[in-house]
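dude i think i finally got it to work??
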Amino acid sequence: MDTQDTCSAGHFTPRIAPIPVWRVSCVRMAALSVRPMTPLDVPRVVSYVVDSSPEDRKRLGVANVPAREALTESLLEACTVPQEFARSSYLIWKVDDRPVGFSSLKGIVPGEHGGMHLHMWETELRGRGFGAILFCRSAVEFHDRFRLRSIVCEPRAANPAPNRMLRKIGFPLVQTYVGASSELSAVCELNRYEILRDVAEAYLANRGS
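look at this
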């Protein structure tokens, strides 16, 4: 710490330099939120899927990449379909009001079940704990919006990041099996986690979110 020494009546008094602004900004808590996807979000989501690298596709277990036009049409429809008829739903993740990724819920049977997916396209924000909070907020929103009895999330078993995050939150691993988790996915070994509303709420409460 920088100091300037002064002496007054034989006493030593350190003068403490102010904390630099950049150090204050580093410790500020980021504002994390989720909201429904709008048509303005669709090009970014489409680009994340269609323009993904071969390495990302392998990590995520993606085998069936749709044409840009077909995926755009599908996502625009998901933005506008009445909730009671929705079979898929998307929530945009935001950090400090900036879109950074999304959660999707597919195979929705209102009042019953759905399958949840998670994606963060801002790679520099991965591994900082934001994804766990945004995932839990999305899970609570999906449970409430569609009055679901159960949600599952089935990441590729060989993809360590989502498996580590789901275990850290406390969601139970209920099955490991070979299959495809969505219409985009390759057949591979999957870990199925039960996404319980009370576990998501407890995680958020423990972090003051």
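Helices lie at 21-27, 42-50, 54-60, 68-80, 130-146, 160-169, 197-206.
im so relieved honestly
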